[in-house]
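Shipment paperwork, digital attachment
Item: protein structure file
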Amino acid sequence: MIDHITDLERGALWAGMGTGKTVAVLTALDGLQLADPRPALVIAPLRVAASTWPDEVAKWDHLRHMRISPILGTPEERGRALRADASVFTINYDNIPWLIDQFDGTGRRWPFQMVIADESTRLKGFRLRQGTKRAKALARVAHSRVQRWVNLTGTPSPNGLKDLWGQTWFLDAGERLGRTYTAFENRWFTSVPRNIKGTNRASGFVEKVPTDFAQDDIQSRLTDICQSINIRDYWDIDEPITNTIKVRLPSRARALYARMEREMFMELEGFEVEAVHAAAKTMKCLQVASGAAYVDDTGQWREVHDAKLQALESIVEEAAGMPVLVAYHWKPTAIRGLKAFPGSRMLDRDPQTIKDWNAGRIPLLWAHPASAGHGLSLQDGGNIIAHIDQWWDLELHDQINERLGPTRQKQSGYDRPVYQHYIVAEDTLDESVMLRRDSKRSVQDILMQAMKRRGL
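Attachment content:
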């Protein structure tokens, strides 16, 4: 991956979550900046721009000298971040028009030698005359001011081959797949009548479908600039592939968390929430870390943040249509999740729910580990599980993982890796729960260590 990024001025890296795309890009950039010290610009979803890239440099000794400046927040905060002395600047896709305006017509020189489009499928809607506002703004500088360009994604065509043209245009201005989207469609797609769903009657509309030769032809044209990483070539798929996704609490949530941890009390939307003993404080802290907290004894709750739901959205995007099982502990998490992800379902006592999941009819299934324990078979429905809430019970944790784990995959004849994602709020008790699982030390020992570290 490092060689691919270094050798090509403009190219794409197609590799799934956990394959090391981020560290590969940063390592390649570190070498390139020896010859050209200008910074790079990373465009990414908000959570990824805010946390993933800055966190990555702290993980590796050879990258710790690099400084990451996230261009986020209010216009004033973005302006200050843009003026920072940094190796890499990160920004979310929605703020691209603002960024371009800082240089267009202002006399300021474009400062970035490289643009990295993380989750480059966000650019799939680009068209020369139409398309999204952010992609059109980015197109103004893509080939006139940017020397190097890297597209990063694990799912280059989640909705089929039509997703490739917009992303690839930013690499070659249409050289390989056609100068316009219309030319692309005319060459590799054909029009067929669209039937009314569930009938054989024509709806009066047509849809574009790929020709028989489209897949091979398009693939051959992209081979020289696109590198695809197959996880099976580098991982032993008999063991699950685990991935910890850390999120940062927004400032309001961080303040609530700190007060509850310090004083066993917090005020949330007019409610005075008090923890009467250490165990209650632990629960409240974990609730705040997850995004919502109970405010009284009747079950009322209030939302605190949605950072974990944003992280789950990234997992769903990477899954590219594959179903995702979500393990939750707090009921408000599932309620908020059902609203945030239309079409998702709750694992309940209705046998039809499990049948629908195993038939692939549920894109995202919310399951409490206590209701998805011994004997339940969910492996036919998918091979991806995301733990959005963290809790101490090792047995329940292991049991829900095993519902679609490697052993069950093999028993059912599936030769595919199992992905286990853990969404963890940084510098909270979530990390202590993860340590408990990894070390199998007692809950009390872990909590004592965490409190001592914070001086509590």
